[in-house]
From TrEMBL:
GO MF terms, alphabetically ordered: heme binding; iron ion binding; monooxygenase activity; oxidoreductase activity, acting on paired donors, with incorporation or reduction of molecular oxygen
Name this polypeptide is given: Cytochrome P450
InterPro entries assigned: Cyt_P450_sf
Amino acid sequence: MKENFGMVKEKPMKLSHNISPRILPFALQTVEKYGKLSVIWYGAIPRVTIMEPDLIRDVLSNLVHL
């Protein structure tokens, strides 16, 4: 958590649609380092990051059947 808060910078952003470095810098760094399917721990709570559309569709369609 300390790393996450330390990565947020208070500098002006360039005008673009790419806001992930500003909003979620720790998650972006994790995806760049470990890939589009990775796990981030927020304290004792694991968060799974899935950034592949086919896998996201499969996960969400299986949630409906639970």
